[in-house]
Design goal:
Helix content is 29%, strand content 27%. By secondary structure, it is of the alpha+beta class. A hairpin with a 2-residue loop joins β3 and β4. The longest helix has 12 residues. The chain is globular, with a radius of gyration of 17 Å. The relative contact order is 0.13.
Length: 153
Amino acid sequence: MLGKFLKLFNAEDVVLMDGVVQVKEFYFTLTLAQKDLRSHSKPVYIGYCLGRKKGQQFCPSVCLLDFISGRYEKQVIVDPKTEWLFICGRDIFSVTDVKGNPSEGDLVLVMNQHQECIGIAAYAATPTKKTPITHVYDIGDYLRRERTRKLKS
């Protein structure tokens, strides 16, 4: 599952798969010392979290998006207002800059003006109200999940 996700972004070499371990639905990358520690105990969280399995989908972590952003060329840069709306789960209707010459429907990394990856979207060559750059995943997902858990309890 993680391997397929990395392949979408031509980033198979960003993570050494033999250093990846799955703990419940989460994927982590471990150092040799952490592997040794894991063999003696059953941690809930260890190393860098790369993401989690959600049904048949893989949801990347902010850490993994950061790893990928240094390698993947297809990116859109958004202004601060659009950044906020995207993090809240909205589609993108205008961009500041486009890098890597993406084609219609390609997955692109959404970057803020500080070159921080804030999520993933499906590219539309000319975003309009009818055909926006479609939201796929953003860093605000974690906060929305936490809020939902608190509301249920």
